Amino acid sequence: MLKIGPYSFHSRLLLGTGKFPDFDTQKKAVEASETDILTFAVRRMNIFEPDQPNFLEKIDVKKYTLLPNTAGAKTAEEAVRIAKLAKASGLCDMIKVEVIGCDKTLLPDPVETLRASEMLLAEGFIVLPYTSDDVLLAKRLEELGCHAIMPGASPIGTGLGIVNPLNIHYIIEQAKVPVIVDAGIGVPSDAAKAMELGADGVLLNTAVSGAQDAVKMAQAMKHAVWAGRGGFEAGRIPKKLHANASSPLEGMSVL
Amino acid sequence: MKMTVNGRDVDLPENVTTVQDLLDHFQLNKELAIVELNQSILDKSTRDGAKLTNGDRVEIVQFVGGG
Fold first, then answer.
1. Fewest CB within 10 angstroms: A4, A143, B31, B60, which?
2. Hey, what domains does chain B have and what are their CATH numbers?
3. Interchain proximity B34–A89, CB inside 8 Å
4. CB A88 to CB B8 under 8 A?
5. A68: three-class secondary structure by DSSP
6. Can you give the pLDDT of all 255 residues of chain A as single tens digits?
7. β-strands B2-5, B57-65 pairing
8. How far is A16 from A44, CA to CA, in rounded Å?
9. What is the pTM of this model?
10. Annotated binding site: which residue ranges of A?
11. In this complex, is the C-beta atom of B66 within 8 Å of any C-beta atom belonging to chain A?
């Protein structure tokens, strides 16, 4: 079970809802992923085109925990405003703090992320900050009281996988709250690797929504997270420099 | 009545006096809509009855796909 604040989840895969080719594919992908947590962004309604469909109308909202993000915010104050708007939906009290500091890399602004997290914790939110793989920043966020830490594997949407597994390892090792590897996952082995490192969950979006077969990739990611977690819990063998035969050396008939 | 809705200046008919009227006027989905009136976020339970006045700045947002 993945425990975040007062909530418990069966699935350790968190799925983003952006950039799917169509709602039908998205719905099937969400079902195939067997996720419990779906992320969303908060944006203006189009007042002159009211009939545009919304994915929330397509799914049974009660089956999922919604995790809105503060994407679009560049300052802590903007993030707090978006978080409060999200909470006013009455659908959730968790927030993914996302304060982007650079348009090119989409890397999070560490100072604003820290400030926003502090302000939102004071407001009673369940706070999950998206952060870089900086080990000390992760520690500072945890010390503030954040309910989970979400370090990026690599920049958003790149699909480069875990570019600094050592830092992710350090972050997981020191953390007493869940660590969810968020952003940059490209293929199932990336998700499995994150889980093998001991992550409590993986949050991904483009890896599924941008795959040629999003539904199949959603299913593959589900299996990858499950397999990676199993491997972590089972405990891997130590790495050795030289071979060590797994078949017995005695009793060979030909020698 | 003139006001700014989602950054657009709009001129609304006289019968639009509350947030509920405004949402109806633009045929917006009330379940999905989250409303901010003059930088104050409205609680969903009391939102619909909130009165509008000339020059108000209204933001109407919703959840959309995102990662």
1. A143
2. 2-62 (3.10.20.30)
3. yes
4. no
5. strand
6. 999 999 999 999 999 999 999 999 999 999 999 999 999 999 999 988 877 888 888 888 899 999 999 999 999 999 999 999 999 998 899 999 999 999 999 999 999 999 999 999 999 999 999 999 999 999 999 999 999 999 999 999 999 999 999 999 999 999 999 999 999 999 999 999 999 999 999 999 999 999 999 999 999 999 999 999 999 999 999 999 999 999 998 888 876
7. parallel
8. 19
9. 0.92
10. 157, 183-184, 205-206
11. yes
